[in-house]
Structure formats: structure tokens, C-alpha cells
Batch of 2 targets.
Target 1
Amino acid sequence: MYLLTELGAEEDYELVSYNPYAASDDERQWYVDYVHPHGTVPAMVDDGRGGAGVMLESAAICMCLAERHGRLLPQPDAMSDYLESVSFHCISVSHYCRKCSRRIADIISLVHLFFL
Ligand SMILES: N[C@@H](CCC(=O)N[C@@H](CS)C(=O)NCC(=O)O)C(=O)O
């Protein structure tokens, strides 16, 4: 959503809310069957992919939108830095973020168990 705002393209897309943490079993099943096989967000239903296709992975969606709107793109001589940086954040940083958030959740559970 932030990227669409930055691109000035909010009107070009319809935002459909889906909260994987609050979805009912039926909603989740529909989402997995028709939108995203992993059941996670985001996903972009994209009519411009040779018929209605669904694009997955937030970084790929962001790079595709930037490319399509011709904005927020690197200079050609900075392309390798751009791809390296996006890959680093998606693979390495998000890996550690997930580990951290799991640890924090474990610590909160222990605090609840022992002190509350
Ligand atoms: N690599 C994926 C990760 C997607 C992801 O894990 N999304 C989280 C929200 S930020 C989610 O949907 N979690 C729900 C779940 O794991 O069931 C991407 O960047 O799109």
C-alpha cells in the first residue's frame, strides 16, 4: 500500500483486505485455493500477466509495480546494488526478523506462564 501511494497509483488497484490471523477456516481455504497457496499476504491479482494471474512475494510485487510505473527504480549502473539489497532484505533480514519475533513470542509466553 505504501508503495502504491509513493507511485501515485492507489486508484489503479483495488485493495482487498484479508487477515490471515483472523480468517475463518472457510475464508482461509478459499484464499489458499484461489489466491495464495501458502495462505500468506500479500498477493497481487494481476490482469496484466496474460490473463488473470496471481503474483506472490512482496519484493517481487514491489519491483514489478515500480517497473510498471517507471518510478522508484535504480539507475542502470546501480542495478546490481538494487538487486543485492532487495535480496539481502528478503532472505537474510526477514529470516532474522522471523527468528526474533518467534523468540519474543516465546519470552512473552514464559512471562505469562510464570508471572501472570
Ligand atoms: N516471503 C513472503 C512472506 C509472506 C508472509 O509471511 N506474510 C505474513 C504477514 S507479513 C503472513 O501472511 N503470515 C500469515 C501466516 O503465516 O499464516 C512475502 O514477502 O510475501
Target 2
Amino acid sequence: MKTPFHSQQSLKSRKLLDKQGPTVVKQSPAVEDREEESGREKVLICRQCGKHIADEAWRISIDGGHRHTFANPHGHVYDIGCFESAVGCVGIGPGSNEFAWFKGYSWQIVACTGCMTHLGWFFHSSGQHHFYGLILDCLVSSF
Ligand SMILES: [Zn+2]
């Protein structure tokens, strides 16, 4: 999709140049550069719908590690990674501090805003610290 746009654009610019000289060339190279730059950073996207969920740079350590494996009361095992931030996630339902996986933190379920797949949990402490614990199997690395 990008190639025809670029060739059209350059044809147009050439015509403008012929007619009016180099002063009136409408292009937005700055915007394109910026898009390409942010595209180079590695991100994690929803495995189901491809929505951008978090950046690799947002991985953090909690309680001595980034990855934690937990089982919920129904015996379902989750392999989660801790992230200081997450986009493309929305909190679902009320918060809870039952079965707290991280001491001192209550949690809320978070789902993908694109497809509503359960992606993990938002944890927050009474001391205002918070982070996301995202199920690593639900995320895919992308550029
Ligand atoms: Zn999704």
C-alpha cells in the first residue's frame, strides 16, 4: 500500500516543481520519519487481534523478577510478566484483594480493548504504586 502512495506523491511533487518552482511542495516528510522511528521500537501486541498492548521497554521487576507463575483458585496456571504501563488494556469489574498474588497489592482484571480477551491484571498498592501483570502467552512481540 505504501509504494503506490510514494510514487504518486513524487510524481505530484515533480509536476509542482515544473510549474511553480521549488517553493510550493506540499509534503510531510517529518511525520513519515516519526512514524518509522516509533515503528522500530519493539512492542508487544495482542495475540488475538494485534492491538498494541505494551512496549518491551516497559518490562519491570516486581518482587525480584519480571516473570511470575501463579495459579488461581481454580488451578489455572498463568505465566505473567510485570509491566510499568500498558496501553490497549481496560480494567474489567471491581477490584479485589482476595488471593493477592503480590503482597500488599489488590488487583483488577484487564482485557484487550480491541477484542476483550483477558490479558492479565492491574495491581495497585495502597501506597499508590501500580503495575500490570500481563499473561505472556497472550502477547506477541512485534516491531
Ligand atoms: Zn486483542
